[in-house]
Amino acid sequence: MTNNENAIGIFDSGIGGLTVFKEISSMLPAESIVYLGDTARVPYGIRSPEVVTRYSFECTDFLVRQKIKLLVVACNTVSAISLRRIQTKVSIPVIGVIEPGARAAVASTKNGKVGIIGTEATIRSNAYLNAIRMLREDVEVFGQACPLFVPLVEEGWTDGIIARLIVEKYLKEMVKKGLDTIVLGCTHYPLLRDVIQNTVGDVSLIDSAIETAKVVMEVLSENGMLRGQNNEAIKKFFVTDSPKKFVNVGEGFLKGKIKDITTIKPKMSREQDEN
Ligand code: DGL
Hints:
Elements: E1 8-12, H1 18-27, E2 33-37, H2 49-65, E3 70-73, H3 76-89, E4 94-95, H4 98-108, E5 113-118, H5 120-125, H6 127-135, E6 140-145, H7 149-154, H8 161-175, E7 181-184, H9 193-200, E8 204-207, H10 208-222, E9 235-239, H11 244-254, E10 261-263, H12 270-274
Parallel strand pairs: 1-2, 1-3, 2-9, 3-4, 5-6, 5-7, 7-8, 9-10
This protein binds D-glutamic acid.
């Protein structure tokens, strides 16, 4: 039996999953959370499905060893490619970010034209397109990979001229399609939200992080898995590379201190993979 006192586990390829961490923390303040950012191997979005799956299994195994009661795959790329396989691998509930985002997009669109922005792997997988079509067949879906958004965010350059020019370059054509809704289909993108909104104008932006946090709350309460309010919630962070940049950018985004952070070694380094 799962202990309700156990933490929620969240993993992402890097810092972007903090967008999901933040929403879950604010919706469920009594819950303890263990967060793993695979900062040594970010970005996942340019890698093959085999490599993404292998990395995601390692992250899953690590978090399961921390005795979590529920796993959130905060990375859109992993959710698009290996969510089902992770779900069959472990015995706790596993929640991805694609379906919640797709549901919110379908609820939001009035003219049936939805844009998806994400990593190359997410867009190539058609995971959002398929999830949206399962809900409503007549929605037109336009996908756009924005590979430079992730390094911008990891670097903390989320506003200013460079961010603006890059966002404009990627989204200029997409806005001409007359969409009324765009899904921020990558955990890093909500950090660029203001620049994206200024570029696309009067279009609803869907933040999968908020939608995913709602699903986590539903699953925990429907299954009687919510934690009691007696003890203080513990927030622990693990990264696979030096924590300095993660802490700097993360604290700015969370507007709070990241106190308990540990560097762990991924089983296989990126260098070994590339050889
Ligand atoms: N966090 C990943 C996602 O949501 C993006 C970053 C990456 O490419 O690793 O897709």
